[in-house]
Amino acid sequence: MATIYKRGKTYYCEFTVDGVRYRRSCMTDIRKLASEYANDLEASARRQAIYGRNVEITFADAAKAYIEDGGERRFVGRLVRHFGTRRLSSIKPNDVRDAARAIYPHASNATRNRQAIVPIVAIINHAYSDDGEKFFRVERFPVTRKNRPAATRQWIDVFRQACFDRGKPQLAAYVLFIHTTGARLSQAINLKWDEVDLQEGRVILWTGKTGPNGAEKESHIAYLTDEMVVEIANLRGMHPTRVFAYNCKPTLEKHWNRVIRDAGLPKLTTHEAGRHAFATEMMVKHRHDPVTTAKMGGWKSARMLFEVYGHPDEGNAIANAVFGKKSRPKQS
């Protein structure tokens, strides 16, 4: 039972839990309020002695500590608004799945996994990191992966020639750029001349993120092929600030779809011709590892890159190359 005493005008409390002595200011000169504060403080200390120190941590406090230690903050804001000051110890796996549905009611299971379950589990496990025996797990929602088409270099070359034939060299350069760097549509559109170093063959690509404190920007370096350096150099003068001379996504996509239709090409999105094809070429066609591919293309997660963007080769050629009958050695 906590002992209440006064020092000056302020009440203090004193109690012992599990051999540890606590002395705290009750921060009030009203005895009744001081007694309630002392009882709550002692009860909290006893719960922590039984269940561990994290039993009193709120989700908001855990999220703050996670970010301060360098954790990914991109999706944390919505999660904190959902759980608020709820105690971490009260959050169960089903609560996490319910939260994912509530926060993203119209999203796919893949989005719920990536933007809710994964960061919530990371935040909770970060808080539990000092308790070696604890590890929080949540079953993810099932996801069916779709095999998206990826543009071949032949498709790119036909598209580019159609662009040149129609007097659109900026679109021809754009498709080559996204195909060889893995740049997102918005990154390429927003690329400025002062972010380009043709002598070194590299550019700075910026990605806009939404974090708990509002809009944020991250960047990575993309490397240019010799062919790409020449293409970009030829665009000088088309626009005072933007490399590819497009101001908005709808205008580019209108020209993109028109070229595809006029050239009689299979319809592909800018993502399938660019970012998806980049990952496919790097990992499948040329056998580079996902970590290298993720670094060059600006992906955060090599695992996500491997699962989503790796477009596999299939068919008889692969089966014969790996398991086909080899020529028998000549008998002497």
Summarize this, please?
With 332 residues, the protein is α+β, with helices and mostly antiparallel strands.
Characterization of this structure:
With 332 residues, the chain is of the alpha+beta class. It folds into three domains: 3-51, no CATH class; 56-127, no CATH class; 153-308, Intergrase catalytic core (hpI Integrase, Chain A, Orthogonal Bundle). It is 48% helix and 12% strand. The chain is built from 15 helices and six strands. The chain has helices spanning 31-51, 59-68, 76-83, 93-103, 109-127, 153-165, 169-181, 185-189, 226-233, 249-263, 270-273, 275-285, 290-297, 302-308, 316-323, and strands at 3-7, 10-17, 20-25, 196-197, 202-211, 214-223. Strands 1-2-3 form a three-stranded antiparallel beta sheet, covered by helices on one side. Strands 4-5-6 form a three-stranded antiparallel beta sheet. A hairpin with a 2-residue loop joins strand 1 (3-7) and strand 2 (10-17). Helix 6 (153-165) packs antiparallel against helix 7 (169-181). The longest helix has 21 residues, at 31-51. The radius of gyration is 29 Å and the shape is elongated. It starts with a strand and ends in a 9-residue tail after the last helix. 27% of the residues are buried.
